[in-house]
Amino acid sequence: MNDKYIIYMKAGPYCGYSLEEIEKIKHNEDKLYGKFYWGYGGVFCHPKRVLEFVGRAAKEGENVLVFFSVTKSKFNSPIPRCHYQSADKNKWRLLPSKVILVGNQYSLVGTNLRQTNFSINLFDYSATLGDRSGKCLGDYVKYRVDKSTAILKNEKSKQIRSVDISYVCELVSPYCVYVK
Fold it and tell me: From CA 166, how far away is CA 180, in angstroms rounded?
């Protein structure tokens, strides 16, 4: 698996849906539309930064994979179901009718969501977000930081912070959008 450019993200129960229900919904979207929408919120992985990251990967002929580690933490949001998407927050268009996004500000756009069973060392990656680009992902992802874009380092780290990756998908155009 080519994992040079990744988005690391935690996934779990969300706004009343179990992770298994979310997986089923996303598989249905992918089957219907050739892609699915994975919503998220917060201040990390802002669409502008994700699109810059995708552009950087594309310049090197690389694709971006999303690695999901499972969290049991349940999250609820006061944001209702989203019906619109935008690349720039100026021009909005309807999401496809069977897309279900609840409690989100943004959405990654992916395909081929699949269960996996492998581990990565977060210290083998450099985060491209945050106050200091290039900070080890193992130092960056902690406390309230639960997602980041990251690049695999050329050399393995001696520090180890292993996380299990339970799901993987590929990002596809338009890669990341604002939703409401």
Answer: 28
Mean pLDDT of 6-20: 85
Neighbours of 111 (CB within 10 A): 15
Single-letter code of the amino acid located at 80: P
Q: Which long-range contacts (CB under 8 A, 24 or more apart) does 115-119 make?
A: 115/23, 115/166, 115/167, 116/165, 116/166, 116/167, 116/168, 117/164, 117/165, 117/166, 118/164, 118/165, 119/162, 119/163, 119/164, 119/165
Structure tokens at 121: 């060392």
Please name the residues in contact with 158: beta carbons below 8 A apart, sequence gap of 6 or more. none
Residues in the chain: 180
Cα three-residue angle 20-104-135, rounded to 5 degrees: 90
Instruction: State the Cα–Cα distance between residues 27 and 111, nearest whole angstrom.
Output: 9
pLDDT tens digits, 102-153: 888 999 999 999 999 999 999 999 999 766 667 888 888 887 778 899 999 9
Return the biggest CA–CA distance within the chain: 48
The amino acid present at 19, given as its one-letter code, is L
Q: Structural domain boundaries of the chain? A: 5-179
pLDDT digits (tens, 9 = 90+) for 36-65: 999 998 778 899 999 999 999 999 999 999
